[in-house]
Amino acid sequence: MGALDIRQAVHADLPALIRSLGQETYFTDRLARQDAGHGFLLIAWDEEVAVGDVYVWLAPAEEPELRALLPGVALLTHLEVAAGRRNEGIGTELLRAAEQRLAAINHTKVALGVGLDNPGAQRLYQRRGYVEWRYGPVATTDVVYHPNGRHELRPELCRILIKPLNRTHHP
Question: Is-annotated flag, keyword Acyltransferase (predicted)?
Fold first, then answer.
């Protein structure tokens, strides 16, 4: 593995993202949202190969419970690491980069949803200091992006995890 480089995606990255991670519809949508100021897309690069990504959602949450109970809190969505590159610390580095960037722009907390059937991801988030909120699981929608460009909406019940961001630890 070369030196991992995590940076915000730009439109010129799209061909490399699609080659490495697929999901053209997803990345096109997230770049458009980023352009509109609704969030930012961070990509983990190993040399010129995209090996992971996370989208930081800054717009109001789609779920009414999150809008009501976590107004203005950024959400980490669609954290993924390429299948052959999992368990190498890439997800941890993506989380760290997103948290540092949020702290630098004066966010004091971040939240995310993780499916009830994803204990591996839950362990990662808990190791990074995320704790489950007290209001129980929330009904969300998982968007599955297929290689043919089609996407599918699936209901998903998620645990909501929150982490305070301490700006003094993030230069």
Answer: yes
- Give φ, ψ of 53 to 5 degrees: -160, 160
93-109 per-position pLDDT tens digit: 999 999 999 999 999 99
Q: What is the C-alpha end-to-end distance of the chain, expressed in Å?
A: 26
- CATH code: domain of residue 50: 3.40.630.30
List of residues 6+ apart from 10 with CB closer than 8 A: 31
Name 73's Cβ contacts closer than 8 Å, sequence gap at least 6.
61, 66, 107, 109, 110, 111, 162
Query: Cα(163)–Cα(161) distance, rounded to whole angstroms?
Result: 7
pTM of the complete model beyond 0.85: yes
168 token code pair = 């003094």
| Strand boundaries in the chain, DSSP class E | 4-8, 39-46, 49-57, 74-81, 109-115, 131-132, 138-145, 151-164
